[in-house]
């Protein structure tokens, strides 16, 4: 295990320092190398439930999910923390940040003035009505009453903040009474809906439209969304669409693929779970579930697509697990990290329940692939599989992992762990 001199500070709960921070870019940061397969030993532990989201605000990691208890790195002290808490990036010390949130926090985004935006399935925050969206101060736990955004029903599953703009995706059909199916852009200060931004998502024949996840390019000009939809702005876009968001609206880009038109197992209105831009914005990688039934479909896979191409695209490469779900992706330059409850990578001919196919390599629960080829890298720390990794957070010093299990890198790490740069 890796130890640092400041690890002892994790025993105490400390207040958030009064830092003046800028809002970081939401795209994953570039790293000079693949991270270590040995997690640091000073991160805290979430003792129940699932970690769904992570965000970095200054030197503070904010953790969202569906849980009730956390412990310091030594597991000697346990604290009540319902659905959200924070800890120090450099020492793991649990912060005093503990707002009262009555539902799961599925998404987080750094805000200005040491604040964080949170989205999820909650209806109240600190006793006040605030459905699905809120902005919180990390200094004193208070809710920004000036940020007055509310969804009509459903939840918020993804958030990206960029300057004065806040993008939100989920299962809603209206925000602040303004109709927006699954995707909206808000004023980051007031929460008011950007009237000029409307992706006009539609899903003829689907039970409901939802954006499962989205990302914004490093330069802020492109947005790519995945989820349960079939059309956008009247054009055919099955489960994935790319928009020009550099101006006042949501301009649908002449960029599309038919790769996700074939259906997976019955019951999946979408089998895409996460999408991320590369640090240079040149490509995206999509993580998928779906229970693969053939090597020709992209169920239970990760796939790379080039961003600057136009027209109908095929994936540059596909990484197949052979029937196990992938839920999370992070891209750092040297590696594409993938998390789920997979057992194998490089497994196009394996099937769920029948073992690996020719050429498959063991990568239980977490692994990394080459950005150029999509083939498995040697990095293989392992984790207890559970349902799967739900979120990655790339920091300047390493890779944070949030999930629903407590074994990472062959060590106890309660639902949170960090792999440092070598």
TrEMBL record:
InterPro entries: Delta_60_rpt. Keywords: Signal. Residues 1-20 form the signal peptide. Gene3D superfamilies: 2.80.10.50. Pfam families: DUF5122. This is Delta-60 repeat domain-containing protein. It comes from Actinoplanes campanulatus. The lineage of its organism: Bacteria, Bacillati, Actinomycetota, Actinomycetes, Micromonosporales.
């Amino acid at each position: 295990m890796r130890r640092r001199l400041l690890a002892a500070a994790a025993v105490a709960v400390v207040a958030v320092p009064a830092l003046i921070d800028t809002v970081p870019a939401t795209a994953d940061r570039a790293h000079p190398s693949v991270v270590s397969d040995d997690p640091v030993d000073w991160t805290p532990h979430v003792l129940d439930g699932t970690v769904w989201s992570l965000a970095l605000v200054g030197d503070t990691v904010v953790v969202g999910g569906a849980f009730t208890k956390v412990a310091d790195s030594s597991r000697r002290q346990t604290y009540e923390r319902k659905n959200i808490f924070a800890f120090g990036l450099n020492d793991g010390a649990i912060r005093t940040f503990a707002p009262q949130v009555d539902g799961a926090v599925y998404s987080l985004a750094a805000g200005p003035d040491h604040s964080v935006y949170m989205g999820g399935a909650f209806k109240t925050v600190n006793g006040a009505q605030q459905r699905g969206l809120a902005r919180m101060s990390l200094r004193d736990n208070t809710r920004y009453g000036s940020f007055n955004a509310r969804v009509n029903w459903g939840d918020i599953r993804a958030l990206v903040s960029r300057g004065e703009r806040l993008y939100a995706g989920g299962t809603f059909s209206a925000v602040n009474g303004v109709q927006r199916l699954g995707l909206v852009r808000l004023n980051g200060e007031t929460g008011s809906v950007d009237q000029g931004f409307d992706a006009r998502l539609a899903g003829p024949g689907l039970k409901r439209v939802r954006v499962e996840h989205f990302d914004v390019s490093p330069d802020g000009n492109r947005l790519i969304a995945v989820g349960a939809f079939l059309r956008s702005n009247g054009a055919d876009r099955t489960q994935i669409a790319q928009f020009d968001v550099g101006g006042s609206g949501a301009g649908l880009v002449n960029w599309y693929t038919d790769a996700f038109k074939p259906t997976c197992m019955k019951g999946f209105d979408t089998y895409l779970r996460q999408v991320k831009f590369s640090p240079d914005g040149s490509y995206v990688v999509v993580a998928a579930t779906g229970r693969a039934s053939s090597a020709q479909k992209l169920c239970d896979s990760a796939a790379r697509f080039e961003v600057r191409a136009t027209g109908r695209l095929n994936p540059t490469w596909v990484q197949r697990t052979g029937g196990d779900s992938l839920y999370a992706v992070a891209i750092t330059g040297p590696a594409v990290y993938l998390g789920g409850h997979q057992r194998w990578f490089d497994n196009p001919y394996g099937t769920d329940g029948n073992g690996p196919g020719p050429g498959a390599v063991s990568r239980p629960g977490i692994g990394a692939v080459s950005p150029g080829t999509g083939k498995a890298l040697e990095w293989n720390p392992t984790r207890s599989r559970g349902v799967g990794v739900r979120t990655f957070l790339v920091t300047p010093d390493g890779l944070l992992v949030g999930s629903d299990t407590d074994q990472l890198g062959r060590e106890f790490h309660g639902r949170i762990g960090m792999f440092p740069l070598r």
